[in-house]
């Protein structure tokens, strides 16, 4: 028995019709799209959905996010990245979370993602003070259960945190620096062994719908042998190697101070730029950096909402496109953007770059934004062979929007209205691998009300622990504030943007 969507307006996002709506029918057998055309085969046993007044597009790929920040949603404001990390990524005092809480956290994050049209997560999961396989199992199991597609990482930092940023260690009490440096960090071999086991363990999980990816935190936070090993392991298993690079001006200064070059040039020098390498953020890049990424086929996951909230900067959208660098779109974490909703990201990407130059021919087009949210994200996740477009042989990850709503009234250009007018309220059905996981705003695979009630009971204890960690990590705040101000005033010769306002006040 197949599912047929008949006579819908379809954004195929393929090389022929792209983001131009075309009237098409779609046949889905099992988890796979088998036919797309003005007419498709139907059998008596098929389920047929009337596609009239419906817009169908590929499911969104959240090309960079951190589900583990979900418990700190709405907790911080007016903090640049390095100061924000003191509290959301505590350096001192963190206690391991139980697999049960991680399961609950992951289910809620995935639930909100699915209800907003995200069918694939590139989830860079960090557990503090360290991640074990039981914790990773909890994330993978939650995503398998709820029905979302996901790449799940073991995010790793294997340098002492005070040594991952310039200048700060010199302004901290020696006893604090000594304490941080005495904390155990994984060796490169330990991380690669952990990753090899995870890759083996999850190779066939949910038919490949949920899998493991490599995620060295960044070239300033990981040793070269770890990054190089991860970059070699990723293509061997046909997954991505996901690395935070040049998110802030501090990181631009870091490259010069630590390596005598940009961080992108350093990655090239150690052999870590490959078609499987994806840079998260990529804001403070030089023109030469962009050319290197294009030369090596590496992609960028762009996070405009998070970058705005943290005052990190504005990525060079048009320069990336001109160089042929593939862009995906991500929400980043729920503590740096406070939502996993991709509709917010689409609109921000479409609007933000219009203020970076007066030539309106260079401004983002709706079709480019939609491509980044679908086919581009699939490419940066190294899943472009199975998702991101609507075509025979692709996985049936689809979104069905009701065109008979105020967001699409009057009906003009559906692709523009999807980017600029729609906020997810018109989304009627979400399919992942041919299975309906959201119908009329309700999840079909889990009890959302029960999940929220379960978390509500736990929140008093979670908040008390967050308060304790913030008090303990306040010791770093003045030194990191000084470092942020110092780096914000430095000329690092990057492609664009003058940097965050150094007068940003610390508040939490």
UniProtKB/TrEMBL annotation:
Keywords recorded for this protein, A-Z: Hydrolase
Organism: Pseudonocardia autotrophica (Amycolata autotrophica)
Protein name (database record): 8-oxoguanine deaminase
Domain (Amidohydrolase-related): residue spans on this chain: 55-437
Gene3D superfamilies: Metal-dependent hydrolases, Urease, subunit C, domain 1
One Pfam family in the UniProt entry: Amidohydro_1
GO MF annotation list: 8-oxoguanine deaminase activity
EC number(s) recorded for this UniProt protein: 3.5.4.32
Listed PANTHER family: AMIDOHYDROLASE-RELATED DOMAIN-CONTAINING PROTEIN, AMINOHYDROLASE SSNA-RELATED
Keyword Hydrolase among UniProt keywords: yes
């Amino acid at each position: 028995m197949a599912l047929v969507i008949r006579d819908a307006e379809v954004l195929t996002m393929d090389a022929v019709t792209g983001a131009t709506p075309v009237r098409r029918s779609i046949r889905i057998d099992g988890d796979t799209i088998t036919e797309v055309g003005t007419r498709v085969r139907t059998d008596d046993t098929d389920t047929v959905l009337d596609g009239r007044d419906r817009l169908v597009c590929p499911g969104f790929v959240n090309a960079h996010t951190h589900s583990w920040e979900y418990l700190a949603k709405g907790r911080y404001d007016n903090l640049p990245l390095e100061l924000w990390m003191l509290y959301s990524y505590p350096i001192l005092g963190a206690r391991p979370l139980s697999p049960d809480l991680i399961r609950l956290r992951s289910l809620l994050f995935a639930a909100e993602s699915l209800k907003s049209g995200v069918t694939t997560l590139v989830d860079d999961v960090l557990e503090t003070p360290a991640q074990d396989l039981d914790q990773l199992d909890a994330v993978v199991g939650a995503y398998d259960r709820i029905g979302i597609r996901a790449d799940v990482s073991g995010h790793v930092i294997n340098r002492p945190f005070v040594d991952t940023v310039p200048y700060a260690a010199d302004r901290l009490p020696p006893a604090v620096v000594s304490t941080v440096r005495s904390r155990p960090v994984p060796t490169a071999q330990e991380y690669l062994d952990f990753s090899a086991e995870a890759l083996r363990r999850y190779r066939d999980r949910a038919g490949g719908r949920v899998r493991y990816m490599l995620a060295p935190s960044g070239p300033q936070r990981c040793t070269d042998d770890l990054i190089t090993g991860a970059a070699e392991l990723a293509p061997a298993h046909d997954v991505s190697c996901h690395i935070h690079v040049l998110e802030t001006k501090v990181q631009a200064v870091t490259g010069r101070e630590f390596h005598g070059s940009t961080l992108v040039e350093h990655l090239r020098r150690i052999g870590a730029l490959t078609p499987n390498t994806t840079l998260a953020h990529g804001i403070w890049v030089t023109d030469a950096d962009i050319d290197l990424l294009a030369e090596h086929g590496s992609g960028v996951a762009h996070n405009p909402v998070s970058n705005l909230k943290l005052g990190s900067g504005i990525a060079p959208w048009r320069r990336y496109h001109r160089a042929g660098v593939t862009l995906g779109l991500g929400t980043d974490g729920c503590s740096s953007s406070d939502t996993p909703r991709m509709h917010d990201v689409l609109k921000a990407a479409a609007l933000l770059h219009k203020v970076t130059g007066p030539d309106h021919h260079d401004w983002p087009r709706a079709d480019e934004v939609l491509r980044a949210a679908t086919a581009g994200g699939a490419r940066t996740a190294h899943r472009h062979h199975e998702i991101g477009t609507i075509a025979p042989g692709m996985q049936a990850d689809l979104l069905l929007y009701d065109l008979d709503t105020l967001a699409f009234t009057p009906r003009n250009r559906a692709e523009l209205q999807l980017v600029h007018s729609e906020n997810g309220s018109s989304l009627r059905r979400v399919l992942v691998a041919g299975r309906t996981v959201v119908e009329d705003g309700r999840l079909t695979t889990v009890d959302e009300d029960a999940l929220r009630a379960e978390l509500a009971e736990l929140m008093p204890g979670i908040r008390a622990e967050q308060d304790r960690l913030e008090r303990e990590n306040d010791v770093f705040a003045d030194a990191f504030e000084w470092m942020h101000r110092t780096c914000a005033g430095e000329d690092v010769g990057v492609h664009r943007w003058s940097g965050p306002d150094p007068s940003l006040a610390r508040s939490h």
